[in-house]
Design goal:
Elements: E1 3-14, H1 17-23, H2 25-43, E2 46-47, E3 56-57, E4 62-67, E5 70-75, H3 80-99, E6 104-116, E7 121-124, H4 125-135, E8 142-144, H5 146-154, E9 158-159, E10 162-163, E11 165-173, E12 178-186, H6 188-191, H7 204-208, H8 212-215, H9 224-244
Helix pairs in contact: 1-2, 2-3
Length: 246
């Protein structure tokens, strides 16, 4: 019997995975292994939620599953600690995959979500919403659904005195054109800023060089729409890192 509850749901997929499968199946399999390890490490983290008094294992609040290059992380409840947990889990998973040279895009939504882990069945509007939001933006990052941002505003999660979500002008894909839109996004560079060497000039070419094994070629040889994802990502990283100075 499926469990029925309001939950926070995050969906991620790996950029360039289809190209990796077509180019080198064994390297694509390595991407799946990296995603699985990153997911398991995220669930095994011990975290102290801002309102908690003791360390808890992340899997007490969240669960996860994967299908091919898609990873779903969802909370087991609907409390403020679950909201905080989905942000912590999403940031950790994103960073762990990135450290293994796997770029992700994802989104977080909220609503009624049913799951049956024994039968590996998952269904709910927040999963559909997260998929649509993630797919609509050409970059590597995490979009926050408006309903989640509203709940977050009532109990904000801070890092170094700054909010872990921000408004960001993104280029969303419309039917026949790209349109600028201000969306809530997870400020993952703020949380992961120690991973960036401030002495090295960050550019789309330098940032994307870690992912050449997936694409099989360098940034200059990629299609324009693929390069745009990393142009947008690097612009976001630079502005977020600049905002943390001081």
């Amino acid at each position: 019997m499926a469990d029925k509850h309001e939950r926070y749901v995050a969906l991620f997929d790996a950029l360039g995975f289809k190209e990796a499968v077509a180019r080198n199946l064994h390297e694509a399999w390595g991407v799946l292994e990296d995603l699985r390890v990153s997911m398991e490490e995220t669930l095994n983290l011990f975290v102290k939620l801002p309102k908690g008094k003791i360390l808890i294992q992340n899997s007490e609040r969240t669960a996860a599953t994967n299908f091919s290059d898609s990873v779903i992380i969802f909370t087991k409840g609907d409390e403020i600690e679950d909201l905080q947990s989905i942000f912590i889990s999403s940031t950790a998973f994103f960073a762990k995959a990135l450290n293994r040279c796997v770029p992700l895009r994802g989104a977080i939504s909220h609503g009624e979500f049913l799951f049956n882990p024994e039968k590996n069945l998952f269904c709910g509007v927040p999963l559909n919403r997260a998929w649509c939001l993630a797919e609509s933006v050409p970059w590597s990052g995490i979009i926050i659904d408006e309903c989640v941002a509203k709940r977050y505003s009532e109990n904000p999660l801070m890092s170094g005195g700054k909010s872990v979500i921000v408004r960001w002008n993104v280029q969303r894909k419309a039917i026949s054109e790209r349109v600028q839109e201000s969306l809530w996004v997870l400020n993952w560079p703020l949380v992961c800023k120690e991973n960036f060497n401030q002495d090295i000039k960050l550019s789309p070419e330098s940032y994307s060089s870690a992912f050449y094994s997936i694409f099989g070629s360098s940034y200059e040889k990629w299609a324009e729409d693929v390069r745009a994802k990393y142009d947008n990502t690097v612009e976001f990283i630079k502005q977020m890192l600049d905002s943390t100075v001081g």
